[in-house]
Specification:
Elements lengths: L2 H7 L3 H15 L4 E8 L4 E7 L11 E2 L4 H8 L4 E3 L2 H5 L5 H6 L4 E9 L2 E10 L6 H24 L5
Antiparallel strand pairs: 1-2, 1-6, 2-3, 4-5, 5-6
Helix pairs in contact: 1-2, 1-6, 2-6
């Protein structure tokens, strides 16, 4: 199955996100894949999907805290990349858990709609995994599928 076929066949939000996860896995790889939806007006985020529901369940909302990550992703509209656990620790309070899962690099790809940040696709792997070439590949080949998966998931029910 291909991403487009899997996405078209999706009848649940999880199936739409799983189609994207599979594409990410075959493109740049990820030990952990999550989708966070955001409501920037209310400054709330919700994990809408997780490849590891035991350690990172998709449930509830949390307040978005202003920090340099938010400025980078929301304020500047850029993809956030960190390639060491020490870098991750400067912006994410769960760096210890991330490390315990064998992850030490992250790409947070913003998903925009009508000029508003609506979600981020978050992929994590071992330290130094997300090389400049993999970051470019992520931005060039996964941005449109991330938007398509968001649109499909949204068509199947509320996201936040």
């Amino acid at each position: 199955m291909t991403f487009n076929t899997d996405l078209a066949a999706a009848t649940t939000q999880d199936a739409a996100w799983k189609a994207l996860q599979d594409l990410v896995q075959s493109t740049v790889g990820a030990k952990l894949f999550t989708i966070m939806t955001v409501d920037m007006d209310a400054m709330l985020a919700r994990r809408a999907y997780s490849s590891d529901p035991v350690n990172y369940p998709a449930a509830g909302t949390k307040e978005i805290a202003p920090n340099r990550w938010l400025d980078h992703v929301h304020g500047q509209g850029k993809t956030f990349v960190a390639n060491t656990l020490a870098e991750i620790d400067t912006v994410f309070p769960d760096a210890d858990l991330i490390g315990k899962l064998g992850c030490g690099s992250v790409i947070n790809l913003p998903i925009w709609q009508d000029g508003q940040l609506v979600a981020t696709m978050n992929i994590l792997h071992a330290e130094q995994h997300y090389t400049p070439d993999r970051v470019t590949l992520t931005e060039e080949t996964l941005t449109s599928p991330a938007h398509a998966a968001y649109d499909k998931a949204r068509s199947l029910g509320p996201l936040l």
